[in-house]
Write a structure and sequence with these properties.
By secondary structure, this protein is an alpha/beta fold. About 40% of the residues lie in helices and about 15% in strands. It contains 13 helices and 14 strands.
Length: about 400
């Protein structure tokens, strides 16, 4: 009897999802380093600071006290209470602990939220430039991301009339990110309130990614949930990663109406069960403890931001908007497209990023992955010495293109 040939295939959803462009840059930079090249990394999206010692010590104490077992699916009570206190103290939001769920990082919180509110063929409005994961995460739920482009001259804030025009009977959610990765834009209170009203009027959820909520400079971010009398349809997502230099600890959280949180918990119970027990105890100390570290870090990031802007002003044919938060600048560089150094021609942002990396050894992230092909992302979450060297290399490389 002849053997039957078995054909295996992957789930169709895999073909719809693009690999992360930021990770592609990281991988290529690592490859060049392994060849002995010195690479200046201005593409990294995490603080260059160590987690503060008092937070590390809280983790050690949690280990010594035996907090190594399963916790509640939604997170330990102490951390949910600490989140509630932080939301009121910093964001002027009032929740109770039952309206909070702790997850394995901000990305996990966002995924739980999308899995809770989006069905196949629903639409979710996402503003470009966007964090690379937003549309891919939506696709994994079966929903269709509807991309609305924003403009540099408007500081990348969405036009409310355009948003209203894009809303259909399939619109299930609007996703915002302020302060923004990759632009550093902080939406005005008028824009935030307008988006809340559009969501309310059209029966849509509003998912607010506030990953960088405490890293802001000239303009303080507004949480959309301040415009709800009681938690209803806004889902507030925050994380310990950026503000407390805890990227590897993987603790994020969401606050929303009770029914939303209960359903997010149902999904989490069948995936990760709960976030890391030790990291949860450390996060309690981070939120309730001394905040001096955070204030000092923001002061330093402001200095670095100002330095980057000062350098970009002197580089021909590069435009940018002033970021009010996060730790990124997102300059427009399309005037260099079509130019060549005599060996290779730069046709787009990806070509330019590869040219910068290969020619001068400076790693930046092309705007293609963020839905803005004319731009590149510069991260200033690195030392001033690295910034100076990296921008020197950036400028030198651009001078070679004719």
């Amino acid at each position: 009897m002849p053997e039957t040939e078995i054909k295996r295939r992957f789930a169709a959803r895999i073909a719809q999802v693009k690999p992360s462009m930021t990770m592609a840059v990281v991988d290529k930079a690592a490859s060049l380093r392994s060849q002995g090249r010195t690479i200046v990394d201005l593409g990294v999206g995490e603080p260059d600071y160590e987690t503060p010692d008092h937070i590390k010590q809280a983790a050690v104490e949690a280990l010594n006290q035996g907090h190594t077992r399963y916790t509640k699916n939604v997170g330990i009570d102490e951390l949910r209470e600490a989140v509630v206190s932080k939301l009121e103290r910093v964001n002027n939001l009032k929740y109770n602990p039952s309206q909070v769920i702790v997850s394995g990082g901000g990305k996990h919180s966002l995924f739980n939220a999308m899995m809770t509110v989006l069905d196949a063929f629903d639409e979710i409005i996402i503003f470009a430039p966007y964090w690379v994961t937003f549309p891919e995460m939506a696709k994994l739920t079966g929903a269709n991301p509807v991309i609305i482009e924003t403009k540099e001259e408007n500081n990348f804030e969405p036009d409310l009339d355009e948003v209203a025009d894009k809303i259909t009977d399939k619109t299930k959610a609007i996703l915002i990110n302020s302060p923004s990765n990759p632009t550093g834009s902080v939406f005005s209170s008028d824009t935030i309130q307008g988006l809340v009203e559009l969501a309310r009027k059209n029966g849509a959820y509003l998912i607010s990614d506030e990953c960088y909520d405490q890293i802001a400079y000239d303009k303080q971010p507004v949480s959309p949930a301040v415009y709800e009398e009681d938690p209803e349809f806004v889902i507030t997502v925050q994380t310990m990663s950026k503000s407390y230099a805890m990227t590897g600890w993987r603790i994020g959280y969401a606050a929303a109406a009770n029914d939303i949180i209960k359903n997010m918990a149902k999904i989490q119970s069948q995936s990760t069960s709960h976030p890391n027990s030790i990291a949860q105890h450390a996060a309690v100390d981070a939120l309730n403890g001394d905040q001096t570290f955070l204030k000092e870090m923001v002061i330093e990031y402001r200095k670095r931001r100002d330095y980057v802007l000062e350098r970009l002003v002197s580089i021909p044919n590069v435009s940018f908007s002033k970021p009010d938060g996060a730790f990124y600048v997102f300059p427009k560089v399309n005037d260099y497209f079509g130019l060549s150094d005599g060996k290779q021609t730069v046709n787009n942002a990806l070509d330019l990023a590869n040219f910068l990396l290969e020619e001068e050894g400076v790693a930046l992230v092309p705007g293609d992955g963020f839905g803005a092909d004319d731009h590149i992302r510069i991260s200033y979450s690195t030392s001033m010495k690295e910034l100076e060297e990296g921008l020197d290399r950036f400028e030198t490389a651009l001078q070679k293109l004719k």
